Structures are given as structure tokens and as C-alpha cells.
């Protein structure tokens, strides 16, 4: 498949792709988009006069052999500009599996369609003004979403919340430029200190808004990667059993033999408001076994990167000793978990705290105490980053962070220079113009192929 050419006009030809994932399934979707979509579809059996937005059952065939049927398909035509891409679009819903969709795609390419590049359908929608650059990125985030937190952030961005917020900030910067223009164009006017204070206040409001947006980045990262919850403790302390119970499925090998877990095993589990990445580690102990000792080294590394540590042991005394050992390697908050409860202790009860560390009695076998443990983890996770307000968009990509950081730094430089009043207004105003430029790049107002290429390079084919 060819690379996206710099400066290429991708709107003049007709593209085709399988829009569903490869493999066996009930249905597969094949898409056509471009000026010749209806004509190419007609060559494989679709009536040329099929009304738009009407689903029709069509026996599609090879263009050179009408009697050689490919499948009974459900076909929908979308007329330009009232389609996702803004072009003529035809979608074929065929029976799933690799052969049928691949054969239909081959037939359409044989008729003159070009195989689509990754993200090219969405790119055409962008170029036709059907959606903005940030909304296009939100589509990719929605496809990649692995948790409810990622899904919520992508849906807010797809609804245009971030675009509207950045658009308002851009307008505020343009208003600031207008105030500066007055100072530049009418220097003889003397309105006293108020105009200078007005300019400073306006710039400070924009800077504060940019800081608030940048502050959502940690929450977005946790929403994507998960809160790292490391299970630590001595060998045979019930860590793997607890890991399986928290995961809801047997993912780690459970054995009465100490040292069974040799490497870190992790699993992302969706939770509200943030997903949890549970990590089962090798038991902490000195061992002559080189392989086991390597596993212990991995455990110590994971402890250093943890957001929450579940310190596991069989007894209260064992918990106390394990908490001391874990504290030497981890700075994250700890929850002491007695995984094999004493026969005289009621299941799921809360144990006395160990030197300020919350302690819980949990049975991985019966599930008692697991919900209390999850609640304790959520409480710690909620304190890691501030939870953005429902209407607050979150910054999900490095591109966003870079552009907003540049805009914030330019505003800070402007405020410092404007307050010092040592430079002419036209010179100071260049910082505001640079901030506007950064927001324009983020919003897609600067139509450069380099930016477009970066955004769509990670898309899947057919979207």
C-alpha cells in the first residue's frame, strides 16, 4: 500500500476498503467513497438508480462475470455531501469471514477503486469539513478505548467539547490582540493604567484556562493505562489467588509450591472512575534460584512504579513484616491484605491498621472482603489526580500537550514582558500571535500535510 503523498489531493479518486476487523464473524463491511462510487458499485451489481439512505438486498458479482455471484449483500448508498466523508459513499454489508469481503474488495479495485490508506475515510471527512481535527482524533480514541474512562473522554471530544473550549480561548486571544492593536495604532491616546491592566487580566484568564486543560493530562493517562495496583508479599502468600479473584478469571498459576510466579503478570480491569491494572509479582525473598531472583528484581521494579500496593500475607504478624519490607522499595500507598483468614475471624472484616496502613481480611476463595478491598483501592485512586468536571474536556494526546504548553508559555512570556513595560507593544504582541498559532495548529486551522499525516498514521484501514 502506498504512502500518503505530501500535498496530495486525496479527494479526486475513489477509495475502497474492508471496514471491519479481519477474521471470522457474522458480518463484514466494505466501503467505497469518491466521485465514482455509485458507478463502480453498479459494475458489481448495485442498481445505478438506487436511492440514497435506502438499504437494498443485492446479489453482488464479479464485474466480468455477472453469473459468478460473490454474496447476497445489503447495500446502502449515501449521496454527497450528506455522507460521513462528504463524498458519494456506498457500503456493502456482506457475510463475515476473510474470503467474501476480500473478494468483493478485489472486484471493486479491479473496477478502478484504489485501496484506502489508514484513516483515509476520516481524513476525507476532515478535508470536506464534516468534522474537525480534534473530532477525527476522538474517533481513533473511541476505537482504541479499553475502559469506560477512555470512552467518556473520547465521546466528550467527539461531541466537540474540546474544540469549543479551544475556540473560545482563541477568540479571547484575538480580543487581547485587538486591545494591543489599539495601543499600537493610537499611542497618543492616554487612557491611564486601566487598558494595560485589562490586557494583563485577559491574558491571565487565558493562561489559567490553558493550565486547567493541561492539568487533565494525568487523569487521561490513568484512564488509558490504568491505576497500577501491585500485589506484593512473600512467596505462597495468596497473591496469585487474590489476583485471579480481582481479575474475575484464572489468569495466574496458583500452586502451593513457593516461587511459582517467576515474572510479573498484569491485567487491565475496567472500573469506575478509572481502570485498574493489577500486577501479580514474584514473592519477595532471597533465593539461590537465579531465575526466581530475576523475578524478585522485576517485582521490586514494579513496586517502584506502583500507584497502589496490596501487601499480602497469611497472618497479621506476616503482614506487619511484609509492610516494612515493601515500604523500603515503594512510595505508593499500601493496603495490607490477609489473604488466608484465621478460622476464628469473620470473613471480610477490617483488621486493625498496621502503623497507619489500612488492613483487610479477604478470602479469595469465597470472595468475602473483595468489594471492600476494591472500594479501598478506588479511594486511593481517586486521590491520585483530580477528577475533571463532567463538562471539562481532557487532554489525551502528546500533540495536545505540546500545543497547549507552547500557547501557555507564550502567554506567560507576554504577561512578563507586558508587565515590565520595557519593550514596544508590537514586539510584545508577537507572543500573543505565537499562542494563537499554536491553537490554530491544534484545531487544524493550519492545513499542513505533516500534521494530517501524524494524526491519521495510527488509524486502521477502512475508517
- What distance lies between the first and last C-alpha atoms, to the nearest angstrom? 16 Å
Radius of gyration over alpha carbons?
A: 29 Å
Count of β-strands: 13
CATH homology-level superfamily of the largest domain: P-loop containing nucleotide triphosphate hydrolases
Q: How large a portion of the residues is in β-strands, by DSSP E?
A: 15-25%
Average pLDDT value? Answer: 81
Q: Main beta sheet, described? A: 7 strands, mixed
> How many domains is the backbone divided into?
3
Shape: flat
Which second-level CATH architecture of the largest domain applies? Answer: 3-Layer(aba) Sandwich
Give the low-pLDDT segments.
5-9, 190-194, 251-262
Descriptive tags:
463 residues; alpha/beta; Gyrase A, domain 2; Four Helix Bundle (Hemerythrin (Met), subunit A); Rossmann fold; seven-stranded mixed β-sheet; six-stranded mixed β-sheet; 15 helices
Describe what you observe in this structure.
The chain is built from 15 helices and 13 strands. The protein is of the alpha/beta class and 463 residues long. The chain folds into three domains: 15-132, Probable tRNA modification gtpase trme, domain 1 (Gyrase A, domain 2, 2-Layer Sandwich); 150-216 and 393-443, Four Helix Bundle (Hemerythrin (Met), subunit A); 229-382, Rossmann fold, CATH 3.40.50.300. Helix 13 (398-420) runs antiparallel to helix 14 (425-443). The chain starts with 14 loop residues before the first strand and ends in a 7-residue tail after the last helix. Mean pLDDT is 81; it is low at 5-9, 190-194 and 251-262.
